[in-house]
Design goal:
Blueprint: H1 2-18, H2 22-33, H3 38-44, H4 51-80, H5 104-118, E1 122-123, E2 129-131, H6 132-135, E3 155-156, H7 183-186, E4 193-195, H8 201-210, E5 214-223, E6 235-245, H9 250-265, E7 271-275, E8 281-290, E9 307-316, H10 318-323, E10 332-339, H11 340-348, H12 361-364
The structure holds phenylalanine.
C-alpha cells in the first residue's frame, strides 16, 4: 500500500509539471483529489486495514494528501500570477495608518522648550522622587518652617536606601551678618524622601552642577496631596525657570515672562502682577492672566474670579544661591514656576483639569 501511495504521488507531481493553464489544473485536481479522485478513493481503503497497519500507513497517507493539496495551491498561484498574499492592485489608495496624538501638555512643553532654547536656556531634568533636602531645605524652607504647609506633601515612608551626603551650602560673608550658618543644615536626615511638590529643586541641582552664569528651564511632573476638583489635581506639570548672572533684576524677569506669554498665546494677553510669598524668592511676585476661557467673566476654570494664577516668580533668595554654591555678592537671578497644566488649560480652553490624566482617548484625539 505504501508503494501505491508513493506511486500516485509521483504521478500527480509529474502531471502537475505539464499543466500550463487553470482549467487543466482544476481537472487534474478533481482527477486525484476530488471526491471520486484517485488518491481520495485509494486512501478510503485505509479504513479496512487492521489497527496496526492503519497506524503505519495512516500518517503517510495524511501527509501525502496535505502535500498534494499544497502543491496544487502553489501551481494555481504560479498560473494566475498571484503571490501567497493574494493579488496586489498597486493602483489602490494606501491603507490609512492611525497616528497617535501628542498629549496637550507635551505640546505646550515642546513649544516652551523651543522658545527658551532660542533665548539661550538649557532644558534640565530632575527626579520626581526627591529628597526633602532639595525639595525644601535647600530652597530656604527648613523643617519647622510654616511655609511647609503651603504645599500638601506626599511624604514617602520608605527612606532612601543609599542616601548620598548633600553638599553643604557655601557660606558667603554678607554685610551685617554675624551668625555662622551650617549647624542647622547638618541635622537634615538625608534619607527623607518626598514626591517633589514643585520643580524648584531642579534650580538648586542646576546651580550645583553648572554654576553661574546659568539659564535653564526644568519641565516635569509634580505631586501634591490635594482633594481633586475641576482645578486641583494630585499630579500636574510645571516648568521651572532660572536665570543667574550679574545684575539680573525683576525687569529681566518681566521681559522674559511677557515674551513667554505672547508667544504661547500668539497675541497679547492681559496680565497683572501681584506680590507673592515664596521662601526661595525675595521679592516674590505672582503673574496672573485674564482667563482665556471666559475672558474674565468667571467660570469653573478660573474659580469664577476671571483671573488665573499662571506664573509665580521672583528674585532668587541669596540663601538659595548659596545652597547652589553661587556667591550672592556677585550674582543675582530670577526664578519662576510656570504651571504647564494650567497653561494648557488656558490655551486649549479646557475647563476641567481631571481630563489630563484621565487617559480618555476622546479627549486626547482632539490634539
Ligand atoms: N515652586 C513654586 C510652587 O510651585 C513656584 C515658584 C517657582 C515660585 C519659582 C517662585 C519662583 O509653588
Amino acid at each position: 500500500m505504501k508503494e501505491e501511495i508513493i506511486k500516485i504521488k509521483e504521478e500527480i507531481l509529474s502531471e502537475l509539471k505539464k499543466i500550463k493553464e487553470s482549467k487543466a489544473l482544476s481537472d487534474l485536481e478533481t482527477k486525484y483529489l476530488g471526491r471520486k479522485g484517485k488518491l481520495t478513493v485509494f486512501l478510503k481503503q485505509i479504513a479496512n486495514l487492521s489497527d496496526e497497519e492503519k497506524q503505519k500507513i495512516g500518517r503517510l497517507a495524511n501527509e501525502t494528501k496535505q502535500e498534494m493539496i499544497r502543491k496544487f495551491k502553489e501551481a494555481r498561484s504560479v498560473i494566475s500570477g498571484e503571490t501567497e498574499a493574494g493579488f496586489i492592485d498597486v493602483t489602490l489608495p494606501g491603507e490609512k495608518r492611525l497616528l497617535g496624538h501628542l498629549h496637550p501638555i507635551t505640546i505646550v512643553q515642546n513649544e516652551l522648550e523651543d522658545l527658551f532654547r532660542s533665548m539661550g536656556f538649557m532644558v534640565l531634568d530632575g527626579p520626581e522622587l526627591e529628597s526633602d533636602y532639595f525639595n525644601f531645605e535647600a530652597l530656604n524652607i527648613p523643617k519647622s518652617h510654616p511655609a511647609r504647609d503651603m504645599q500638601d506633601t506626599f511624604y514617602i515612608a520608605t527612606p532612601h536606601p543609599n542616601p548620598l551626603p548633600h553638599p553643604q551650602p557655601l557660606s558667603f560673608a554678607r554685610r551685617g551678618e554675624r551668625k555662622e550658618r551650617g549647624q542647622e543644615e547638618a541635622s537634615v536626615d538625608q534619607s527623607d524622601m518626598v514626591m517633589r511638590t514643585h520643580t524648584s529643586p531642579v534650580q538648586v541641582r542646576g546651580m550645583l552642577k553648572y554654576g553661574a552664569p546659568l539659564r535653564c528651564v526644568a519641565p516635569g511632573r509634580v505631586f501634591r496631596a490635594e482633594a481633586i476638583d475641576a482645578v486641583h489635581e494630585h499630579t500636574f506639570d510645571q516648568m521651572e525657570g532660572l536665570m543667574v548672572d550679574k545684575n539680573i533684576s525683576i525687569g529681566n524677569l518681566i521681559a522674559v515672562m511677557k515674551e513667554l506669554i505672547n508667544s504661547m498665546f500668539g497675541r497679547a494677553v492681559e496680565t497683572r502682577v501681584r506680590p507673592g510669598y515664596f521662601p526661595f524668592v525675595e521679592p516674590g511676585i505672582e503673574l496672573d492672566i485674564k482667563c482665556t476661557i471666559c475672558l474674565g467673566k468667571g467660570c469653573p476654570g478660573c474659580k469664577h474670579s476671571g483671573w488665573l494664577e499662571l506664573l509665580p516668580a521672583g528674585q532668587v533668595h541669596p540663601r538659595v544661591l548659596e545652597y547652589g554654591g553661587i556667591d550672592p555678592n556677585k550674582y543675582s537671578g530670577f526664578a519662576f514656576g510656570l504651571g504647564l497644566t494650567r497653561l494648557a488649560m488656558m490655551k486649549y480652553k479646557i475647563n476641567d483639569i481631571r481630563l489630563f490624566n484621565s487617559g480618555d482617548l476622546r479627549f486626547l484625539k482632539q490634539f
